[in-house]
Amino acid sequence: MLNPRLQDLMDARAVRYEIVRHRGTVTTNEAAMATHVAGRRVAKAVVVRDETGSDFMVVIPASLHLDGDRIHRVTGRPGIRLENEDELLWLFPDCVLGAMPPIGHLYGLTTYIDPCLLDGQEEIWFQGGNHDELVRMRVDDFEEIAAPFYRSACLHRRMASVGVNS
Fold this sequence. Notes:
Shape: globular
Oligomer: single chain
Structural class: alpha/beta
Number of strands: 8
CATH topology: YbaK protein
CATH superfamily: YbaK/aminoacyl-tRNA synthetase-associated domain
Strand content: 15-25%
CATH class: Alpha Beta
Helix content: 25-40%
CATH architecture: Alpha-Beta Complex
Number of domains: 1
Number of helices: 6
């Protein structure tokens, strides 16, 4: 079932979207494969904390991995680390672990988005709080409801074989 916060936001903003059901998966990249969508077109929400204790969300293509050093350089936030499972459960109590929507403000989090995710794309796909559905919508509508910060540099590692899975 789609996350109620997300559902309410999309309905309130009257954005058009489609729910695409798929077999249960664990990672966002597996969800992309299950729906036959290129991983570079599916948004993966990664939640991190800086050394001051501030949590924020970084959204990158599902097929790639977060680059903590690049996040630090681009945002100026020191001491970047991934949130652990207990922290994620506390921050996203109405989501299945690891399936949070890439719209941080629903949970009081700033959202930074990797510009490589939207480059040349008309649609975006993302998890809506569970591991057996993806939300598909136009990029323009996503930008309106997500209100992310963009940075000029890509926020992922160049090597897809090393890094963070979610």
